[in-house]
Amino acid sequence: MKGAYLTLPIARLAERWLSEDKDPETRGQIERLLAANDEDTLEKLLRNRIEFGTAGLRARMEAGYSRLNRLTVITASQGLAAYVAKAVEGAQQRGVVVGHDHRHNSAAFARLTARAFLRLGFHVYFYPGLGLTPEVPFAVKRLGAACGVMITASHNPKDDNGYKVYWENGAQICPPVDEAIARSIGENQLMEQESWDEDGVEADPNVEDVTQRMMDAYFDAAAGGLAADREANSRTELRYVYTPMHGVGAPFATRMLAAFGLPPFVPVPEQMNPDPDFPSVAFPNPEEKGALDMAKHVADAQGVGLVLANDPDADRFAAAEKQPDGSWLAFTGDQLGTIFAAAVLAMARRAGISDERVAMVNSTVSSRMLSAMAQAEGFRYADTLTGFKFMANELLALQRQGFFVGFGYEEAIGYMIHDHVLDKDGVTALAVFVQLAAQLHAQGKSVAGYLEEQYARYGYFVSANSYFVSPDPAKTGLIFSRIRYGPEADEAGADVQRFEFVRSVHGDTLRYPRTIGGFPVSYIRDLTTGFEMRDVGKVEAEAPLVVGLDECRPTFPVSAGSHMITFETRNGGRLTMRTSGTEPKLKYYLEVRNQDNDREAAARDLEAMVNAVACELVRATENGL
């Protein structure tokens, strides 16, 4: 993958870029940096190549091999097309689906992608207008295409964009396919770039505009399987405010709600039209603090008690509900996951599907409440690594075993409600949520009350998910090294007590903390080093424990190139810490379960563990995070 020229002096590497890049804007950026002799910036832009992460390619839009621009999009598309042509039988005839959102350069990147596939003889199913992310995986599955590409950076800042790849089954690519594609892209790095013409793509006889056909099928599939009672939906007096966060969602949300027979939303006027600069929000992510403030103001002015949102590419969904005291409850991603799971289970039962046939999944960093629900109700549950590429493929495997694909979700407000879209789908989630809220409203109930019913039945779960901005990968690596191997000898006295696991095969000694926030650790899983052990609290403190490979092998895949550690504690706590695949962040996901529904005790434990993450594990102040 690493072309030999990446070892060149930076000035020669810049010249290499200029010999390949035909975009005047990005060429100009490199030329100005060369003229200014700004080697530090040139190194950041050119030395390392953009790589596939949890969502394909995603980076800031500017010049350089490490960024997203016309050259890197063309190169990625050439490599992807070459691999698909070899790996998928009849790939050219089956075709590729290409769509894009409203971000800067998205339309151009989509057309360049289509052009690269056309050069290799592919039929291209194209969405020429602004689209939502779920339209691509839906079409890949419905059309039996060989693969799909969606140009989007979801809820990232305005200067970012992304290149999201779906495989022939309609799910995002995952190992080993992603690794094979990456190698193919590397093999195509030094090819002559011939796919620069983005004009006239739609006029090519091998390009088919599938917008009308696929969108009709998308709405019909969702409403046909999930709309409980259109007539009852149309009679609801429920009112709700909706915002697409300056994204593409509004027309799709409007049509989906109508397909369910639900009344239209109250809009947030300033945020309804697609705007790639996202002028009214600091970050175009409904999860961010303050992102829903404008929608709440509209709701307050209109006397509406429910606020709903999609992120800019409409694959995520968020909700907030006004409480009796006038405050707003913004549901967490896990709370919404619980609400959807209960609603989907009820819909499956109404359809005559037995609980034993239903399958639901969530990511390993999401709440264990779905697992508790499965234990109580008897449906099949599985957790997976982070990312819908893993969840969708797990659900497909369960479907092949005869299970009904009910639901999948991740805590980052992503929900897969039915198997027509094997990825998160914020517009379908919106309609299902409004339908549930309307049913509850008719009974004089609230969504928050519905959630409380689930807590009463399955136990109380409270979570705190956040992150530390960590732009220096080396420092991030040292933080994780300290967690798994312990501190340097001169600072050992200030550290918490630690286990000692001597691995006979690897020859190293792992020294994970025995407590977090004062609570004894009961379980450890490290997917970086390949270590997993339950009941670690039984390990004696006096002497190191020698463990063999088979005694501590994780059930999940191990990836030495990224950091991910999970701890469970005897107070019902679970903490997962990982690096982000798309952002310079050290993320953590923390949850405490109290089976006695003692809210105050759970809150105290959670606060103690949050403080422990910052002070004991990450040492945020000391590390300048």
UniProtKB/TrEMBL annotation:
UniProt cross-references to Gene3D superfamilies, sorted A to Z: Alpha-D-Glucose-1,6-Bisphosphate, subunit A, domain 3, Alpha-D-phosphohexomutase, C-terminal domain
Main location: cytoplasm
Cofactor(s) recorded in Swiss-Prot or TrEMBL: Mg(2+)
One GO biological process term: glucose metabolic process
GO function terms (MF aspect): magnesium ion binding; phosphopentomutase activity
Cellular component aspect of the GO annotation: cytoplasm; nucleus
Domain Alpha-D-phosphohexomutase alpha/beta/alpha: 50-188, 218-322, 333-458
Keyword set includes tRNA-binding: no
Keyword set, alphabetical order: Carbohydrate metabolism, Cytoplasm, Glucose metabolism, Isomerase, Magnesium, Metal-binding, Phosphoprotein
Localization of this protein: Cytoplasm
Domain of life of the native organism: Eukaryota
Xref: InterPro entries: A-D-PHexomutase_a/b/a-I, A-D-PHexomutase_a/b/a-I/II/III, A-D-PHexomutase_a/b/a-II, A-D-PHexomutase_a/b/a-III, A-D-PHexomutase_C_sf, A-D-PHexomutase_CS, Alpha-D-phosphohexomutase_SF
Keyword Thylakoid found: no
Membership in a protein family: Belongs to the phosphohexose mutase family.
Protein's UniProt name: Phosphoglucomutase
Source organism of the structure: Coemansia spiralis
